[in-house]
């Protein structure tokens, strides 16, 4: 499912392009994608007014992965982020959001193999993955 072109989508598209720039050895390396992610994080912190809000968690996790990838032996993380961000932009499937939805403070039901399967095999959704999982039986 191709996502609506919301501000959220444009942020992720720009992030994808800047991540490709960094991986290609382009100008500034990974600094531009890190800077844009900080801007996104601040924007969502101000919008949600809660550091624990799910959109803030996703951007915090993404930023932490970008920073960890600065360590040369962990630079492969950028390729994983590129795959995930591209999936988010093209079909609306965000692996990071799905992983974060399994954390205890984000779940409304006990952890189980069925929940794990449902979380990762559920088709992309227009709403938050948390909202979609809450609607599941």
Automatic annotation (TrEMBL):
The name this protein goes by in its record: Uncharacterized protein
Segments passing through the bilayer: 20-42, 86-105
Keywords carried by this UniProt record: Membrane, Transmembrane, Transmembrane helix
Top-level taxonomy: Bacteria, Pseudomonadati, Pseudomonadota, Gammaproteobacteria, Thiohalobacterales
Organism of origin: Thiohalobacter thiocyanaticus
Superkingdom of source: Bacteria
């Amino acid at each position: 499912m191709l996502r609506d072109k919301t501000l959220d989508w444009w942020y992720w598209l720009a992030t994808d392009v800047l991540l490709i720039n960094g991986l290609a050895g382009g100008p500034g390396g990974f600094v531009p994608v890190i800077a844009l992610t900080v801007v996104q994080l601040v924007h969502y912190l101000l919008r949600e007014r809660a550091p624990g809000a799910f959109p803030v968690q996703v951007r915090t996790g993404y930023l932490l992965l970008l920073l960890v990838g600065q360590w040369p032996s962990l630079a492969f993380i950028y390729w994983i982020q590129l795959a995930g961000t591209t999936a988010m932009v093209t079909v609306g499937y965000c692996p990071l959001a799905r992983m974060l939805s399994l954390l205890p403070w984000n779940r409304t039901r006990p952890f189980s193999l069925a929940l794990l399967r449902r979380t990762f095999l559920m088709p992309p959704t227009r709403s938050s993955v948390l909202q979609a999982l809450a609607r599941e039986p």
